[in-house]
Design goal:
Layout: H1 7-19, H2 22-28, H3 33-47, E1 52-55, E2 58-61, H4 63-95, E3 96-101, H5 103-120, E4 125-130, H6 133-141, E5 147-150, E6 160-173, H7 188-193, E7 195-199, H8 204-213, E8 218-223, H9 226-234, E9 239-243, H10 248-253, E10 257-259, E11 266-273, H11 281-293
Parallel strand pairs: 3-4, 3-5, 7-8, 7-9
Antiparallel strand pairs: 1-2, 5-11, 6-9, 6-10, 6-11
């Protein structure tokens, strides 16, 4: 097998040709003169050519050595060009961060995480895809995004995941609704008979509510927008189930009333990614920010990673 070219020796030869002294060439390459001499001898032995002549006055290039230096300059120029291009490409890829998040996380939580990430890594340029939890998993599987954040209790088993926090849903109604005047939890039979304003199937909000209710709810309206759900609840279309984070202002001003129930409406906030995919440094940083900055009801221990 033909031996590979030793690029460092080629750089030493070019330096020798430019500086006219082996000691100066060695110094420019940050090696000792004996180490530089050893490199030249090894190169000559490998390629069976004499590249330098040694004399009491110093070391000079031979005719073959001068020819090799001419070729080496072209080779090293291309190597340096490729190294610069790869470095730029690596920095560009490192700067890109594709994230998918379900609606509540994308609207009320993720912006703060991304703001903190921007503070510690100003070169990172996030791209955010806002979809429901089911679609987040699809985007992760297709490698469209580096990491996803979902709100559903059921985590896809084929994906690596980590709990980063939790969120509480609220049952809300407009002030004239019969439930708004209750001082005790709404009974399960009344919850079952109500016509609900809910997110679409596949959303974490919908799946959490259905799991807590333990049956398929009756629908008054279905929408893929939290804003639309809140508006419908305020208009009296029906009781709505939304993240409590999304209705803080409405509850404080009395435009909506939170209804007490016996349902467990807490849900996990989970990061998901492909198990066989090496996470970019920016994702690791984002996950650290998410876990340190989200209030959790339970200890957020890592799961499959």
């Amino acid at each position: 097998m033909t031996p590979d070219l030793d690029l460092e020796t080629l750089r030493l030869l070019v330096a020798l040709g430019e500086l006219g002294s082996l000691s100066a060439a060695a110094q420019s390459r940050e090696v000792s003169q004996p180490a530089a001499s050893a490199r030249l001898r090894a190169f000559e032995a490998r390629w069976r050519v004499t590249v330098a002549e040694r004399s009491p006055r110093g070391t000079t290039l031979t005719t073959d050595g001068l020819a090799i230096v001419t070729w080496a300059r072209g080779v090293l120029h291309e190597v340096d060009l490729m190294r610069s291009a790869l470095t730029a490409m690596s920095q560009e890829r490192h700067a890109e961060l594709d994230v998918a998040a379900s609606l509540t996380i994308a609207e009320f939580i993720l912006p703060r995480w991304l703001g903190e990430l921007r503070h510690v890594s100003p070169d990172v340029r996030p791209r955010l895809h806002v979809v429901n939890s089911e679609r987040v998993a699809d985007l992760v599987r297709s490698r469209t995004v580096d990491v996803g954040f979902i709100e559903s209790a059921a985590v896809p088993r084929d994906l690596a995941h980590r709990l980063v926090g939790s969120d509480q849903l609220a049952v809300v109604v407009e002030p004239r609704h019969a439930w708004a005047r209750r001082s005790t939890p709404v009974p399960h039979a009344a919850l079952r008979d109500e016509a609900w304003v809910l997110r679409e199937p596949g959303s974490g909000t919908r799946s959490t509510f259905e799991r807590a209710l333990r049956l398929e709810p009756r629908l008054a309206m279905e929408a893929d927008s939290t804003t639309a759900l809140v508006g419908a609840a305020r208009a009296g279309v029906g009781a709505a189930v939304v993240s409590r984070r999304a209705v803080v202002a409405e509850l404080e001003t009395g435009r909506l009333v939170e209804v007490e129930t016996d349902l467990d409406l807490w849900r996990p906030l989970t990061a998901i990614w492909l198990a066989d995919r090496r996470l970019p440094d920016s994702v690791d940083a984002l996950l650290r920010i998410a876990r340190s900055g989200t209030t959790t009801r339970v200890h957020a221990a890592p799961t499959r990673e």
